[in-house]
Amino acid sequence: MFQVSRPAGRAFSVAVYLYRPGDGGLDRVAILLANHLLRRGVPVELWMAHRDGPAAHLIDPALPVRLVPSPGGVRRLSMIAQFPALAAMVRRHRPAILYSAGNQSNMLVAFATLGSDTRAVGRISNPIVRPGQRGAGAWARLAKFRAIARLSDLTIVMGEHDRALLAQSGDVRLLPRPTVTPAMERARAARALRAPGSPHRLLMVGRLAEQKDQATALHALTWLSHLDWRLTIVGQGPLQADLQRQCAALGIADRVDFAGYVGCPEALATLMAQADLLLQPSRWEGLCATLIEALACGAQVVATDSTPNIRPILADAAQHPATPVGDAAAFARAIERALTHPSCPVRAAAAVDDHGVDRALDRYLRAFESLADAPARARQPSPALS
User: What's the start-to-end Cα distance of the chain, in Å?
Assistant: First the structure.
């Protein structure tokens, strides 16, 4: 078992499984959770296949890290190959709870804890059924998520839509996404209004990959040549060269700045507070951290309907309704509407208040406490996973 002292009231331990500290939202949430549990006096360790990555600097130096042996190669296949090692670690170190950072590792964690006293906690980090997905593909994806939820002791979702889809599939709880940091609140307080006559400041943040679909937003901006705008794109990924070529082909390269990956939370918060509008053209999302972050920093948001989970947030924040995925013309109209009819930054920030990091992570802690105190339930592999 963990060789650490256990303060009164914290008589359970947690291992947080994260494949590597990458540049995605699920990576940051897992690290923030582990750091928070450490500060709250919970015996906690971070279990990873790789220590290196863009978010590695966020790991508290006092947080114990164990490496899970990995053969390397393609991430999904590498995770599958980690099963024997992870199952052995569960039995050797016996954490009360093994937490999975996101979708790809939920099945691994659930199976690794079968037959042990360790409780498996999975987190849904991307849509259960993607926008526009129909037929056998949608049915199979939903069946897989339901089967994994039945196999786990607790499944954390980020929206009522996801909770409804997993109804009757075990213990499924809706918890806020721990996203809004004090740095964001400070950045909003220091936010300055756009100077008259200066360009509209647009921002996109996210991995330069198919999921984020920056190409649709760039195409939409060509419909707005009559407006004075400048766009900053924060992120890195395999499509960077393609997106740069697209900007040149569309004749907007002089208006677009590729800023690369911004790993410093304070620097990213400042960029968001300086923006008039965040563009979120994703094809699919779980909840969309950058949308919440931008609202917290006082920026407006134009987003595609990448997940039903964002619809209540946009409504509460008085933002433009989500536009159809991949519809550049609708996205362009929404951008123009947002720029010519700006919403109230105070209302935008209030809409994401529940996603404050400490407040949300304390909800995770209370969920873990109740799970650790509850009687163990029988977990059997679902026929869908056999």
Answer: 30
337-373 per-residue burial string, b: 16 or more CB within 10 A, e: under 16: ebbeeeeebeebbebbebbbbeebbebbbebbbebbe
In a 10 Å sphere around its CB, with 0-12 CB exposed, 13-18 middle and 19+ buried, how is residue 52 labelled? exposed
Q: What is the Cα gyration radius of the chain?
A: 21
pTM: 0.84
Domains of the chain: 14-178+356-385 (3.40.50.2000), 182-355 (3.40.50.2000)
Chain centroid offset of residue 55 CA: 13
pLDDT digits (tens, 9 = 90+) for 106-144: 999 999 999 999 999 999 988 888 888 889 989 999 999
Under 8 Å CB-to-CB from 254, ≥6 apart: which residues? none
Per-residue model confidence as pLDDT tens digits over 282-317: 999 988 899 999 999 999 999 999 999 999 999 999
Would you state the structure tokens that stand for residue 113, as one six-digit string? Answer: 């804890």
Which residue, among 79, 167, 152, 128, has the nearest Cα to 308 in the 3D structure?
128
Residue type, position 289, single letter: A
CA angle 289, 203, 195 (to 5 degrees): 125
Which amino acid type is present at position 217? A
Which two three-digit tokens encode residue 354? 């529940």
- DSSP for 44-99 reads EEEEES-S-STTGGGS-TTS-EEEPP---SSHHHHHHHTHHHHHHHHHHH--SEEE
The Cα–Cα gap between 228 and 198 comes to 8
